[in-house]
Amino acid sequence: MDLFIVLAICLSCLILLFLWNRSYAQGKLPPGPTPLPIIGNVLQINIKNIKESISKLAKVYGPVFTVYFGRKPTVVLYGYEAVKEALIDRAEDFSGRGSLPVIDNILQGSGIVFSNGEIWKQTRRFSLMVLRNMGMGKKTIEDRIQEEALCLVEALRKTNASPCDPAFLLSYVPCNVMCSIIFQNRFEYSDKQFLTLINYFHENFRIVSTFWIQLYNSFPFLIHYLPGSHNELFKNIAEQKKFILEKVKEHQESLDLNNPRDFIDYFLIKMEKEKHNKQSVFTMDHLITTIWDVFSAGTETTSSTLKYGVLLLLKHPEVTAKVREEIDRVVGRDRSPCMQDRSHMPYTDAVVHEIQRYIDLVPNNLPHVVSRDIKFRDYFIPKGTTIFTSLTSVLHDDKEFPNPDQFDPGHFLDESGNFKKSDYFMPFSAGKRVCAGEGLARMELFLLLTHILQHFTLKSVVDPKDIDTTPLLSGLGSVSPSYEVCFIPV
Description:
About 50% of the residues lie in helices and about 10% in strands.
């Protein structure tokens, strides 16, 4: 009985301390639903579909509010004006990367995507320089994509117009383009190692978008020690890093300091130049993580967008027909589509943009963190506070995009049928943390979709009216439902 009383008093003190801290914080942080001790607002948020819960909370608390995922306060920015003010107008204040415990456990603050401070600044600057040297945004990388696109066309022909799941097929080109940049070699599409790599990318994207991983990120101190899919994610990434390390060792044996061949060589040369600098961020561990970052981001996001895009084209055959008509008129059948064609193909360009807008691939962006104590819209946000910027609220803004939940390329066309840019188009985020590979991804999406539709008619195995485009999972990412398609040569 005495023990029970002691425990009860301790628990009461903890609750009172929590409520006092919460009351103190409420005077500073934006308003939001009242959290419970330890678990925060988890019972008020559908962790299986966080973007839907955030949309509902925004209707109650406005464009800037606070929610607690477990014990951690997170400030949510909802709508174009709030997101733009943070990521673009006050880019430096919001340039930090917030914590994703399941990823932090693996990467330990290394790499380019999930690092902060000087490590991030130096790595991003270096990576952009190398990617430009490797041809990103230039004709050389376009030629590489076109060559891979023709290989993809041949692979699609081998399906003999039979129903197939396109998930792996549509990953071949993005993965091989990244392999050529990082390792200076491509894989044959039948290569088992290549297929295993792609499978890891698919599985990782699926796992991080599940309810379980959202739960892990809210309660890492508890979930980490339980069985679950997070262990599968750890295993997959360990295998990917093992593969990368083997490639790095091969490069070390044949490295020419005066003649870098690819991303790994550039990094190894940088390591050699800074080998006497004990504070250098260019280390072997950092190299492995940076390559994993670049490889993953450059492969899976484009692959997922392509897979979702083909599903939308199956669902809307009238849209597909208009794209094919534009391809026939501008490109014809005697040559491959190129980036110069895009300015003469406004409808196709609008379709590519609308695919990215509609699928909302990373609904709440990767988390940001404020780099110093700031005042934002009359609220005080302490240094280190996690920030969610709702990209859904921007990409699905009903004033900028009428009927935003409808797939409509007209969202990016003016009354004369010309392509219309939109400041609300932020699938790659914005500001200092905008995706480093945005230019490459845009190029791949346009060239691959036009190559496919130049050579094939897409046929669904079910009535287009019965195709459901609702994401299979909606967590960190929006995962396309599985489907089959027939690629019929034209």
